[in-house]
Write a structure and sequence with these properties.
With about 170 residues, the chain is mostly helical. The protein has helices at about 5-15, 25-35, 75-90, 110-130, 135-145, 150-160, 165-170, and strands at about 40-45, 55-60, 65-70. Strands 1-3-2 form a three-stranded mixed β-sheet, covered by helices on one side. Bound molecules: zinc ion. This is IrrE N-terminal-like domain-containing protein.
Length: about 170
């Protein structure tokens, strides 16, 4: 189910406060977030079970983002960004008991929190994909020039873009 307009607007606004590394680097994003919050965030590869592939654990003075250790780099970004979204949106981390054994990690959030985290995570990934080869170089250049004018949803539209769509960005051809 796509997020409501309200949720999308809220998450777009949350995205603006995040420093998304360019070029994309999920570890740098996590480090930045830890500095912002004054609590280091440690990434922990983990043999996850039961379908939960990521978990935010809040300890006394630091946080852990646990992720499936066999995840590909792309999947790791997806998992970690989801947890980053929970953190940035001010949801609650899980207790360190989650790491006590190798049973399934907890991922206990209300549905509305889950939808918001997933929406923000998708926006982060969308923004992180800016230099992706799917976006034609000339479109990228114009986007960077416009900077403030570029919204994430317009960027989303831009992917798999048609020639007509590109002209909208590039202005009338002479
Ligand atoms: Zn979640």
């Amino acid at each position: 189910m796509p997020p409501s307009r309200e949720v999308f607007a809220e998450c777009s606004s949350a995205l603006e406060g995040l420093a998304i590394p360019d070029p994309w680097d999920v570890v740098a994003l996590v480090e930045w977030l830890g500095q912002q919050r004054g609590r280091p965030i440690i990434l922990i590869p983990w043999p996850t079970a039961g379908g939960v592939t990521g978990c935010w654990v809040a300890a006394a003075h630091q946080d852990y983002i646990v992720y499936e250790r066999t995840a590909t780099p792309l999947h790791r970004s997806v998992i970690v960004c989801h947890e980053v979204a929970h953190i940035w949106l001010g949801h609650r981390g899980h207790s360190t008991n989650a790491l006590a054994d190798e049973s399934a990690l907890p991922h206990d959030y209300r549905d509305d929190e889950e939808i918001r985290a997933e929406t923000l995570a998708e926006l982060i990934l969308e923004k992180a994909a800016l230099p992706a080869p799917k976006v034609p170089a000339d479109v990228l250049r114009v986007m960077k020039t416009l900077d403030q004018g570029v919204t994430v949803d317009s960027l989303a539209d831009q992917r798999g873009v048609s020639a007509r769509g590109r002209r909208r960005w590039l202005g009338p051809r002479t």
